[in-house]
Design goal:
Layout (H helix, E strand, L loop, with lengths): L1 H19 L5 H21 L2 H17 L3 H17 L6 H13 L4 H15 L5 H20 L1
């Protein structure tokens, strides 16, 4: 189990490295998809429901970054479903709304706006200022994407 947990963490972090790289090659884009799914797979073996859910969120984020919005919406909804079934941390539900807003930018702008609004409202319950600021930074980014469309 420790090997699976280590792989899950390492792949999760590696996926973020790829997400942060704004000059990814097409090959790195595909590598990012595979590493996010591989991380979630290993969390499925060695993690908690919270780890599983957050793995879905990361996959949704990867697909949104690649403008594969239907796949993003699917994984963002899995995260939201898990947030509704479990009592995770105070930032999980707002980020589930963030994921659905991001996924719906090009699919359903009304739904994206609804999730942006819900994320902002739920974000007020985040106690840690750093987490709240990161949420709002992401929401502002999604808002800018919506205005660009």
């Amino acid at each position: 189990m420790t090997d699976h947990r280590k792989l899950a963490v390492d792949l999760f972090n590696y996926t973020w490295t790829l997400l942060d790289n704004k000059e990814r090659t097409p090959e790195q884009d595909e590598e990012m998809v595979h590493s996010a799914h591989a991380s979630r797979y290993h969390w499925g073996i060695a993690g908690t429901a919270k780890n599983h859910a957050r793995g879905e969120w990361q996959i949704a984020r990867v697909y949104a970054a690649l403008k594969r919005f239907a796949a993003s919406a699917h994984h963002a909804q899995l995260y939201m479903d898990a947030c509704k079934m479990h009592d995770f941390d105070d930032w999980d539900l707002p980020f589930a709304h963030e994921g659905l807003a991001r996924a719906n930018v090009s699919i359903d702008s009304q739904k994206a706006r609804e999730h942006l609004k819900a994320a902002r409202a739920a974000g007020g319950n985040i106690k840690k200022e750093e987490d709240r600021d990161w949420l709002y930074k992401n929401l502002d980014e999604i808002g800018a994407m919506m205005h660009a469309n």
